[in-house]
Specification:
Rossmann fold; about 25% strand; 2 domains
Length: about 120
């Protein structure tokens, strides 16, 4: 059985002037899994997320997110994903699940069968 990837990148790179913020990111995240990026400050975690969510254009490499090419199908990538930062919350008393449901309602996921795809994997 072939693996279907939610995220697949090869050689993704980003420079800011003389600073090489991300060098050759090869990442394969299978559909239906959770992926966390860990590393010290300056390791390129935020740059990688910004690239994979189409907020930045890569200087080199390629990626497919939600089945769509990062550069040629950026709008489709954005329609196929949802991203929230670790500190993003309207109300600090909301649980992880409540926060996801709030964002799901704001972005149109609320009425879809099954709700947000990540709600089942979050406790609280």
């Amino acid at each position: 059985m072939a693996t279907t990837y939610a995220v697949l990148s090869e050689g993704l790179e980003k420079r800011f002037g003389d600073v090489h913020a991300l060098r050759g990111l090869d990442l394969a995240v299978a559909e239906g899994t959770v992926c966390g990026m860990l590393g010290p400050n300056g390791a390129g975690k935020t740059t990688a997320v910004r690239l994979l969510t189409t907020l930045l254009r890569p200087d080199a490499g390629s990626a497919r997110v939600a089945g769509h090419d990062l550069l040629r199908e950026a709008a489709a990538v954005r329609r196929g994903i949802g991203v929230t930062g670790q500190d993003t919350s309207i109300d600090g008393d909301l649980t992880g699940r409540q926060n996801l449901r709030l964002f799901a309602g704001c972005t149109g996921w609320e009425g879809r069968r099954g709700g947000p795809p990540t709600c089942s994997s979050v406790s609280g």
